């Protein structure tokens, strides 16, 4: 343990240093000028300070007042050495933050007795602080591990769902990335955006329960088949909602609400407006955008421009208008996600007659011709 000693009298300083050396596990850090102590802060390392009460330039109290300005020293115990037995002097020292006094001339036995107690106290406190820090680090590690496992479960579930058909796997990956871009433009914090990206790939997980004859049908669905298809929202919600994981609960919310409409005409519950969870409203746009810009067994891929017009025209009816504004603001990011995905499977991106104004890269403008 390091004991800071400050005394302008060299003889007293030498005596205090000798006494500290006799305390088990303690080393003296001596200074004969208070101004040198201040110059060494905040790098100066000590556990206890023993300060002479009367010194030139800075008195003991003035020095202590300066020391405690630094957060790192605020809890360090300070003992004053004084020949003054006057109560008002001692009260002033206590008010400044001193915890004990040594009377000048310092008696070696009194010094040993008082300092041993103080050293034991500080030692116990340091150990407790170390333990608290160790616990904090362990809890942080456990939380990170738990989060990693949650993310792995989501990955594995998404992989499981992708065995149904490879197109669905790519669709879910793109929808996740689009949703994150929209969430960011909407103004959600980084953690929520990341959570939406992780949870969104499971929006169609309920399709595992839809017969292949319906799911992979290349023609139009009959009314009955469409009703079957709609069940993927309820099944997805059922699969995920009982989980204690916040991420899986978010995924359940998205699975159950990504086909609801802002005007209440969606499914499965015909929720309207803010009653639809925000993550569901965001994924609804990402999901539609992806469905329209990619070829399906029953339709060609729409151009980017036609798709954007379609989504903008449905702000306030099918989609949350605020989310559509966020989608607009995120368009540049969305187009690069699209292009990167097309490149990964060496497919040309959806035909587009859009370009980007250099002065305002967030805005999409129509090419002149
Ligand atoms: Fe869906
Ligand atoms: Fe989907």
What number is the mean pLDDT? Answer: 88
CATH class of the largest domain: Mainly Alpha
Largest sheet: 5 strands, parallel
Order of helices and strands: EHEHEHEHEHHHHHHHHHHEE
Strand runs, count: 7
Named CATH topology of the largest domain: Hypothetical protein af1432
CATH architecture of the largest domain: Orthogonal Bundle
Number of helices: 14
CATH homologous superfamily placement of the largest domain: Hypothetical protein af1432
Helices and strands: which structural class?
alpha/beta
Quaternary structure classification: single chain
Q: Kindly report how far apart the N and C termini lie.
A: 79 Å
**How many domains, as an integer?**
2
Q: Identify the bound ligands.
A: fe (ii) ion
Gyration radius (Cα, Å) is 35 Å
Q: How would you write the strand order of the largest sheet?
A: 2-1-3-4-5
pLDDT under 50 segments (min length 5)? 353-369
The shape, in one word, is rod-shaped
Strand percent estimate: 5-15%
User: Helical amount among residues, as a percent range?
Assistant: 55-70%
Task: Note down, in words, how this protein is organized.
With 369 residues, the protein is an alpha/beta fold. It has two domains: 2-134, Response regulator (Rossmann fold), CATH 3.40.50; 165-366, Hypothetical protein af1432 (Orthogonal Bundle), CATH 1.10.3210. Helix content is 56%, strand content 8%. The chain has helices at residues 10-22, 34-40, 60-67, 87-96, 108-162, 166-186, 190-199, 212-215, 223-241, 246-257, 278-293, 304-313, 321-329, 331-344, and strands at 2-6, 27-31, 48-52, 78-82, 100-103, 354-356, 364-366. The strands form two sheets. It has a five-stranded parallel sheet, with helices on both faces. The protein has a two-stranded antiparallel ribbon with strand order 6-7. α6 runs antiparallel to α14 (331-344). The longest helix has 55 residues, at 108-162. The protein binds fe (ii) ion (FE2) (2 copies). The site of one fe (ii) ion (FE2) has 5 residues, from loops. One fe (ii) ion binds at residues 171, 175, 203-204, 287.
């Amino acid at each position: 343990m390091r004991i800071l000693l400050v005394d302008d009298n060299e003889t007293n300083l030498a005596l205090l240093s000798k006494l500290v050396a006799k305390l088990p596990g303690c080393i003296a850090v001596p200074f004969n000028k208070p101004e040198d102590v201040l110059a060494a802060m905040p790098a100066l390392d000590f556990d206890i300070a023993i300060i002479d009460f009367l010194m030139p330039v800075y008195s003991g109290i003035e020095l202590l007042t300066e020391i405690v300005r630094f957060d790192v020293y605020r809890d360090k115990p300070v003992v004053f050495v004084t020949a003054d037995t006057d109560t008002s002097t001692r009260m002033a020292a206590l008010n400044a933050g001193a915890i004990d006094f040594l009377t000048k001339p310092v008696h070696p036995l009194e010094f040993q007795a008082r300092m041993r107690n103080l050293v034991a106290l500080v030692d116990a406190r340091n150990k407790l602080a170390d333990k608290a820090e160790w616990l904090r680090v362990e809890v942080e590690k456990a939380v990170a591990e738990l989060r990693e496992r949650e993310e792995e479960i989501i990955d594995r579930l998404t992989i499981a769902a992708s065995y149904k058909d490879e197109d669905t796997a790519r669709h879910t990956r793109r929808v996740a990335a689009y949703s994150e871009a929209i969430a960011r433009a909407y103004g959600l914090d980084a953690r929520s955006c990341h959570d939406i990206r992780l949870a969104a790939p499971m929006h169609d997980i309920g399709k595992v329960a839809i017969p292949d004859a319906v799911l992979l049908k290349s023609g139009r669905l009959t009314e009955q088949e469409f009703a079957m298809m709609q069940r993927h929202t309820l099944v997805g919600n059922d699969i995920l909602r009982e989980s204690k994981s916040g991420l899986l609960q978010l995924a359940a919310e998205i699975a159950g609400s990504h086909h609801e409409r802002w005007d209440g005409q969606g499914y499965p519950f015909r929720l309207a407006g803010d009653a639809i969870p925000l993550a569901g409203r965001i994924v609804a746009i990402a999901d539609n955008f992806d469905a329209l810009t990619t070829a399906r067994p029953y339709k060609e891929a729409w151009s980017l421009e036609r798709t954007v017009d379609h989504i903008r025209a449905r702000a306030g009816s099918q989609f949350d208008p605020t989310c559509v504004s966020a989608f607009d603001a995120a368009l540049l990011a969305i187009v690069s996600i699209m292009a990167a995905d097309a490149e990964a499977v060496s497919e040309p991106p959806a035909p587009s007659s859009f370009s980007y104004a250099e002065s305002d890269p967030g805005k999409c403008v129509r090419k002149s011709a």
